[in-house]
Amino acid sequence: MDDLVITGLLALIGVCLALFLILFAIFSAGRLMYTLVAAGDYGRVLIGTVIILAAVSLYLTIGFWLRKTDRI
After folding, report:
1. Is 8 helix (H, G, I), strand (E, B) or coil?
2. Scanning 37, 44, 61, 71, which has the fewest C-beta atoms within 10 Å of its C-beta?
3. What is the DSSP code (8-state) at residue 16?
4. pLDDT per residue as tens digits for the range 24-50
């Protein structure tokens, strides 16, 4: 029983750490976009937006493909 508690605690710590890293990455990207807009560098804002949209669409495409092939 103690091994199960330790494993669960380590998994919970890992999930919290991953969530913190993801939130930090989102915050950093948002701060960078805001700084670029404030500086008037709309070319890099457009490139950043395209990269973010491409990543999201790739993530959704992989999810739809996995669901269609009954892997999830």
Report:
1. helix
2. 71
3. H
4. 999 999 999 999 999 999 999 999 999
CB 36 within 8 A of CB 48: yes
Task: Give the length of the chain.
Answer: 72
Phi/psi-derived region of residue 41, left when phi > 0, alpha when psi is between -120 and 50, beta in every other case: beta
Q: Which two tokens stand for residue 12?
A: 């919970």
Supply 22's token pair: 């993801």
Listed in sequence order, the residues at least 6 apart from 45 whose beta carbon sits closer than 8 Å to its beta carbon are 33, 36, 37
Token pair in block for residue 34 = 């805001």
pTM: 0.69
> What's the DSSP call for residue 1?
-
Cβ–Cβ under 8 Å, residues 35 and 43 = no
